Amino acid sequence: MLSSLGTNLMATLVSAIPVVGDDAAHQVQTIPESIVPATRPTDLGWAGLILLLPALSAVLCGLFAAFRVKNRLPGWATVLALGGSFVMVCLLYAHHDPNQPVVIHLFDWIDFSWAEGGTFESVRANFALYVDNLTIFWMLFVTGLGTLIALYATEYMDEDRGKGYARFFGGMSIFLLAMSCLVMGDNLVLLYLGWEGVGLASYLLIGYYYKKPSAVDASKKAFIMNRVGDLGLAIAIWLTWMNFGTLEYNGIFQAVDQYLPQAADGTLATATMGAAPLGWSAHLIPWFLLVGAIGKSAQLPLFTWLPDAMEGPTPVSALIHAATMVTAGIYLIARTYPLFWLDKMSGGGALVAVAWVGGLTALVSATIAMKQYDMKRVLAYSTISQLGYMFLGLGVVQTYGACFHTFTHAFFKALLFLCSGTIMHGLAGQLDLRKISGLRKAKGWGVTTWTMFIGAMWLSAFPFTSGFFSKDAILAQAFVQDGYGYRFLGWLGIITAGLTAYYTFRVWFRVFGGKELRIEPGPEHQGDPSTFHPHPPGWRCKSVLIILAIGCFLAISWGGEEGFGASHWIYGMLAHSSGAWGLPLHWHAGDPTLFGFDPHASMYYVSGTFGVVGLLIAFYFHLYNRKAANNLENLLNRSFATRWLPRALERKWYVDEIYNALFRLPTWLLARVLYLFDRIIIDGVFVGGVARIPITLGRVFQPLQSGILQGYAATMAGGVTLIVAWVVWVWLSKAGG
Amino acid sequence: MEFSQKLILIAPEILLFCGAVVVAVLGLSNSRGIRRAVPFVTALFLAGAVVGTVYVYRNEDALQASGLLFPRLGLFIKCLIGVAGIGLVALGTGTIDRTFENAVAAGRARFDPLRVIRGEYHAFFLLSIVGVMLICNATDLIWLFLALELSSLPTYVMVALSRSSRRASESAIKYFFLGAMSAGLFLYGFALLYGATGTLGFLEMRDVLTTMHQSPEGLPAIAILGMTLALLGIGFKIAAVPMHFYAPDVYEGAANHMTGFLSIVPKVAGMIAIIMLCGTFGWAEHVTFSPEGTEMIQEGLPAPVTAVLWMVAVLTMTLGNIGALLQTSIKRIAAYSGISHSGYMLIGVIAGTENGIDAVLFYLVAYAIGTLALFGVLSGLSRAGHEVESLEDLAGLWRRRPRMAAALALAAGSFVGLPPLLGFWGKLFIFIAGVESGHIVLVTIAAVNSAISAWYYLHIAGVPIVKMTTPRSEALTPQPNGSPRVVACVAGLALLIVPIFSRNIYTFARSSMRYGELTLPVEDATALVDPDTKKTPGPEEDPPEED
Fold first, then answer.
1. For position B258, what pLDDT does the model report?
2. Is residue B355 helix, strand or coil?
3. DSSP state of B388
4. Which of A42, A113, A735 sits opposite B221 (nearest CB)?
5. Do A731 and B241 touch (CB under 8 A)?
6. Which of A94, A187, B28, B463 is the most exposed place for a label (fewest CB within 10 A)?
7. Contact criterion met (CB below 8 Å) for B12 and B60
């Protein structure tokens, strides 16, 4: 069976190459349905509460910290505020007409206009919310998960009650505020504001244990690496205004709509249709947007900050670094999809780049995850890998799959992180796979065991889980969509699916499997290890885990295939939004086939098989016969030709070391050189010489500043006389003559 | 205009005047508690005046009949000066009379009504604020002159009272004589203007001047001389070149909280007076009709006035910045930086009404908040019983008083115009107005000056953070009274938070520049784009500051 798969793989690899050259050209591009212009209802002002409530709880947390509140008040205030925010989003969902995007104006912010104030005649970024299906979809899981995880954190952070507790929940509130601003803003500037805001919150929360050097380093690393992406986003925003003359989504979408027919004709740069021809820089916009998305969503090559970010408290890892913030890159691309589409129609390759970034990231980080021993790091690499899938989905023009996967991933990955959080909490900070075994036998750990099992099943895309459906939607599209190397990427995705199942269940089998309970307590435990008893999670943690597990099940019916009792709720949540441009135009039309079947049906079998095989391998090596795993490693280490493999995986393909050599070292050298330059040239020559000029000038005037009253009066009178004389000379002598 | 309606419009001022009397009497009480309450009573009266202003300016009839050049200008300015006044009261709380009061409390001295000055100081404080508020209600030159003097005369005394040091008296004397000279100067200008136009009222004078301007002969020489002298004289209040020489000495001699007062109150007074005068000279009637009946935009200020203002603006910002480069005393730096800020604001005046004055009003808010933060820090700290004087005193402040160092950095950042802070928006609006009115060279000079100013502002921000504590700065201790530090923190935070609402303040400023006839203001193009979401801010909107 394996050999047949191998030949199949080779055949596909070979067949992938001709697709590039001629097939892409003959396919006729269909212009997607235009986005309805937004209306401005005046009765939805209460939607501002979605942002106001987290802001309020952030302020409250600050006050609690100032007044040294020692109880759980900050936590509960945050839970209530975020819950309120979630309720408001639900209300908005109920009120919102799915076919009609709206702009809810809150208040004026940046508003410069000249001439008529139209396109190219204004720089406008007001505090307004752009609400369409995509916005609501994103906000539903952001605020919903935010509430649940804040509830979990009220228990998790218990030991830090006091200042740290308030600081933590303050950070969470700031994060939710910024994330809402990012998702709901009606223009790119608000998005940028939120983008920086979530970066700030992430920085603050990763460095929550600021006395731990590794946490401080990790927070700095995250912040600095994100700057690279942020620069890309900033440039993209600037280029957007330069080309479309507006920063508001509504204006951008309408402008893109105008240009699309020209893009299809290939006359974008020449023709004028009431608008200026689009310059070459317009083609750079999606590329720079991609740079921004790569930074925030931790894709190749900017992914190394995310594993280190696990230094933060686990609820932070679950909410910010797994479920919500890192999906901001996906949201950015889905939101600006018309710009990508315009690029694609005019022959650009930005979407192909998105797909390649995603596919490669998915595989690379999955391989790294296979050899990590820290449970949270495995999950972090798996997050990067899953985000790669979402990028792949966006790249192969399957926003439905990407957003569906974002949604399901948010649930199961938050669940997995929160489970590992209870383990870390209960085992005094122990996260090493090698030091925990048979945890399922411990008293009070049933909920963690089985919810984590559900999370692992969903992550490894076991057949008929929601992860299975969402992943398949992406992979099937990769095989039927024309684009440079999409089939190759599809195979990468399928291999990754196998690896995913393996590393996920490696964790679960190692930690929970095993004949008897065997635990080495973590570094936080003081005293004799033999007397250590893991303390199980309390009711708040457990209930959150159970709710999330239920959510995982519900996600099947919300987004699953037709035929499995679903109504495409998620498909509907993308319709009529900017993301709708990436929906497959002929859903179930059935014309493209894969291996002779409907592509989705084929993919169920192929990727399902890979997943199950990965799971079985994990079962064999990490539960059934753990000695075999060691034997295998010894075998690899014995031969010089294969020894590098486990080491490279464990050292994360030496990416950090490479970056150190490529960027950190030259920067450090440059800094030294500049420092010397500063000391010798600036301080020596410049300050000693050039900067003397204004100072000398000042000295010329200083005698006037003698401190003697008569002198001042005389100088003032003299000055006035001079000016009056000048007026008389220049203006009045002429008037007189 | 009905006398009663005139009275209604100045009701807040009347309230403050009564407050001055009450405060002066309370200060003489032999109960220590009552004497301690004097600043609070002062602040209460100021708050009452702000509320009263908001209420009074709802009276459309009175505004219609007021005969004012800019009927709504008062709302913005009075709210600004009232709220800033509350902050300034807080800066000085507990400073005046401290030694004497301590001696009385310790039983070392007997209470003597002749020796206490707290009541007088606060009474003068309120009188000066009344003067500023009355400037907005001036309908003619006499009123303007009296109001300007009412705002100035108390400050001469206040400088002398502010601390018991010979230098305070010295600077009070300097300030008084030079102030008197400037008053003589602009009074002479006013007289010439009266001679040229035959009227004192602003509205009539504006009409006469417009007619003269459009006649073939142009403006008479005497009018141009009058305008020049009036503007140069009032330049004293905003410390514009060549009337700026007093500023560093007087600022240095006065107590820190008084320096804060001097940097805000006379500057607001002078700016408003200049705006009203320029409104009379030129751009008040900026839309006129040509003989053919087509609408045309008038040039704006008469060319000589623009030229004088241009020159004064350039000299003011440049000399202010160069002067500040040399100083080590933080108060002298503040004085010179205040001078240069006057220069920036004059750009808005030159640009005229379209956007310029709105930008100036906005800039005043940013400048006032920044100054409150700066002087909040300076008056909140003391060095072995003395005031903070040199920049070196603040070295290492970050390690011991992080909030004070942060407030200082925010104030300095805002003065430079670092992007998220309020000062950035102020400069941005001013520069945009300058560019739009075609004064590119002027804006370029201002931008270069801004860059030069970064040198000393970054010192103010950096010395407390980067430098290590020195033996000299180790002696820095907080003042016993915490209210200046609260002002510093609140103002510092405001510099961060208020920018979110910068558009609202700008719209508020814009709405306060409506002309004599109370028709709808000329809204910008945004109104045409989204009419249903556009809202004009209600009169209850304060310039957000601390109180």
1. 92
2. coil
3. P
4. A735
5. no
6. A94
7. no
The structural domains of chain B, with segments of one domain joined by +, span: 3-529
Burial of A676 (0-12, 13-18, 19+ CB in 10 A): exposed
Residue predicted with more confidence, A724 or A38: A724
Question: Residue A341: how many CA atoms within 13 Å on its side-chain side?
Answer: 32
Please, are residues A242 and A283 in contact by the beta-carbon 8 Å criterion? no
Q: Could you count the other beta carbons within 10 Å of the beta carbon of residue B250? A: 28
B546: left (phi over 0), alpha (psi -120 to 50) or beta: beta
CB B345 within 8 A of CB B360: yes
Q: Residue B204: exposed, middle, or buried by beta-carbon count in 10 A (0-12, 13-18, 19+)?
A: middle
Candidate from B246, B312, B323 with C-beta closest to A698: B323
B161 contacts B120 by C-beta, under 8 angstroms: yes
Q: What value does the mean pLDDT take over residues B112-135?
A: 90
Torsions phi, psi of A593, nearest 5? -125, 160
- The pLDDT value recorded for residue A271 is 54
Q: How far apart are CA B12 and CA A415, in angstroms?
A: 62
Q: Can you give the pLDDT at residue B187?
A: 94
Instruction: Examine the pLDDT at B121 and tell me if it is beyond 80.
Output: yes
Closest CA relative to residue B383, chosen from B313, B451, B470: B470
Residue B408 identity (one-letter amino acid): L
Pairwise CA distance, residues B415 & B366, whole Å = 8
Residues whose CB falls within 8 Å of the CB of residue A128, separated by 6 or more in sequence, listed in order: A103, A104, A105, A106, A185, A186, A187, A190, A248, B533
Nearest CB neighbour to B224, from listed A698, A712, A731: A731
Residue type, A648: A
Q: A23 burial class (0-12, 13-18, 19+ CB within 10 angstroms)?
A: exposed
Q: Do B242 and A121 touch (CB under 8 A)?
A: no
B226 exposure class (CB count in 10 Å sphere: 0-12, 13-18, 19+): buried
* Kind of pairing between the strands at A122-131 and B287-289: unpaired
pLDDT tens by residue, A657-702: 888 888 888 888 888 888 888 777 766 666 566 556 666 766 676 6
B56-66 residue pLDDT tens: 888 777 777 77
Q: Which pLDDT value is given to residue B437?
A: 82
The Cα–Cα gap between B223 and A442 comes to 97
Question: ipTM score of the complex?
Answer: 0.82
Give the containing element (helix H, strand E) for A666: helix A665-677
pTM for this prediction: 0.71
User: In angstroms, what separates the C-alpha of A674 from chain B's closest C-alpha?
Assistant: 19
Question: Are B326 and A699 an interchain contact pair (Cβ–Cβ within 8 Å)?
Answer: yes
- A510 touches A417 (CB < 8 A): no
CB contact under 8 A, A694 and B452: yes
Q: Would you say A316 and A205 are in contact if contact means Cβ atoms under 8 Å apart?
A: yes
Coil vs helix vs strand at B86: helix
What are the pLDDT digits (tens) for B356-400? 888 999 999 999 999 999 999 998 888 877 888 888 888 888 888
Bigger pLDDT: B244 vs B285: B244
Closest partner residue to A695 (CB to CB) among B185, B219, B325 is B325
* pLDDT greater at residue A243 or residue A32: A243
Residue A709 at interface with chain B, using a CB cutoff of 8 Å: yes
Structure confidence by residue, pLDDT tens digits, B413-436: 999 998 889 999 999 999 988 888
How far apart, in whole angstroms, are the C-alpha atoms of residue B223 and residue B204?
14
Cβ of B178 and A113 within 8 Å? no
Least confident window among A530-539, A699-708, B204-213: A699-708
Instruction: Give the number of other Cβ atoms within 10 Å of residue A420's Cβ.
Output: 25
Q: Hey, which residues does B201 pair with through a beta bridge? A: B140
Q: Is A351 helix (H, G, I), strand (E, B) or coil?
A: helix
